[in-house]
Amino acid sequence: MSEKFYLTTAIAYASRKPHFGNTYEAIMSDAVARYQRMCGKDVFFCTGTDEHGQKIEDLAKDAGITPKAYVDGVAGEIRKLWDEMNVSYDYFIRTTDDYHEKAVQKIFKKFYEQGDIYKSKYEGWYCTPCESFFTNTQAADGKCPDCGRELSQAEEEAYFFKMSKYADRLMKHIDENPDFIQPELRKKEMVNNFLKAGLQDLCVSRTSFKWGIPVDFDDKHVVYVWLDALTNYITAIGFDPDKSFDEQSEHFKKYWPADVHVIGKDILRFHTIYWPIFLMALDMPLPKQVFGHPWFNFGMDKMSKSRGNVIYADKLAEHFGVDGVRYYALSEMPFASDGSITYESVIKRYNMDLVNNLGNLVKRTLDMEKKYFGKVIPAPTAPEALDDELKAACQKAYETLTSSMDDYHIADAAEVVFNMLRRANKYIDETMPWALAKDESKKARLGTVLYNLLEAVRAGAVLLTPYLPETAEKIFRQLGTDVTSYASTETFGGLVPGGKLGEAYPLFARIDEKKMMEQIEAEQKAQVEAMSAAMKEEGEAFLQFNAEQEGVVS
């Protein structure tokens, strides 16, 4: 039986279309899922949408539609975007799914009946966009410590979860499982800023709005969005709150605990403190790891609609293709510090790595092979010492990608593969196949050189499959090979001599940076003008409505 691997993203909040920074998480998780499948594991990859809360209720009201109609539209847009980015999820959960809502109600009641939840009154600061409460100490300047927006004072009846009851047990788990929170610096933030400072009881219900899962034994209350959202990781695989772990379905027991929750660093507190404590209260195993990835900034600034610096992955793909977008996201995000994106940087990396390095290598190699061997793969019968350097580069790429992907150093893994491709391009210049082709006595050596290049191309395509799945498939078709398993790259020589190559064609077209930037700037200008016109039209309609109302009153 294959080893299982259960991977989740944070479910996307169904308030607005996700920008490039949000989409990175889905792309990164997809690369990990594809890699684990290549390693032969039974992968279950879950993603979805978080659809309750005051913010969504307010947005739906502004739009003049019901909250359910609003989230149906946004959830559909999110799923479409994930599909466009070739995210190979196995399950897409929505927190408005009936089975999820029923499970959450049972979980809430279970917590209440076993004494983990009690009713009281909340007084303090609240951030609507983050759906989070803060103490006076945490919000000393009246602004949200997570997003920086203005906070509002809130006072309402609420149910609270006794966090302190499980704090020591959680601290012990973190101490005994050093890889539970990654990267390491994130763990230090959680332990020092929250656990050691002392956990306050957590508000887990609201009465000031209605768009949430009702508390079935107290209908004035709806379940706080974070208790609702976090439980998706177990409801998605069939968790039954009425049963112990041993009594759960085979599907649930097969995949839980999760191997990794991939989340943004801004929601680490919820996943490494609140979520483990909820699971302890349910007497369920904790996830093996929570990985808090950094953010993508626009240049040096955080992406923000108000700043006009938001980039969307699907719009980017119109210029660079889906694999171009995926590659930039996966190669530019550091392991622990924030990444950066600008249109200029995307163009430069696209031209440098995908066009000049990968695309150039594949086209040159296949064109020479067709010219000198009629598309029949030659046998490597005349090796020389120089070949060993190329083989060593391929071997290093396999070994480093394995260790890097296992530790979620995604960009480092990509870099070593492209170093191998650069070494293959250099090998062409060193061996000069065009010169060997002029001497009939060196036909065997020419065949060996071209075999080595074809095998390097094949190995590169296999290793880049998690990053560039569409491009990898195109390369396999051009090579005419079905030797595409990850294990086949562990040693050099998987390509079968005598096989017939397919048709060669360019993988990527070089982009003219000046022309592209002019086109993008024109598109941005048109978008701004359209938004301004829409705002002006709304303002005029509002004034007209007021004038009509004044006429009615007078």
What does this structure look like?
- With 554 residues, the protein is an alpha/beta fold.
- The protein has 18 helices and 16 strands.
- The strands form four sheets. Strands 1, 2, 3, 4, 8, 12 and 13 form a seven-stranded parallel β-sheet that branches.
- It starts with a strand and ends with a helix.
Ordered list of secondary-structure elements with their pairings:
Blueprint: E1 4-9, E2 12-13, H1 20-38, E3 42-50, H2 54-63, H3 67-84, E4 91-94, H4 98-113, E5 117-127, E6 132-134, E7 152-161, H5 164-176, E8 181-182, H6 184-195, E9 202-203, E10 205-206, E11 222-223, H7 225-230, H8 232-235, H9 250-255, E12 260-264, H10 268-282, E13 290-293, E14 296-298, E15 301-302, H11 313-332, E16 339-341, H12 343-373, H13 385-406, H14 410-431, H15 433-436, H16 443-463, H17 469-479, H18 513-553
Parallel strand pairs: 1-3, 1-12, 2-3, 3-4, 8-13, 12-13, 14-16
Antiparallel strand pairs: 5-6, 5-7, 7-9, 10-11, 14-15
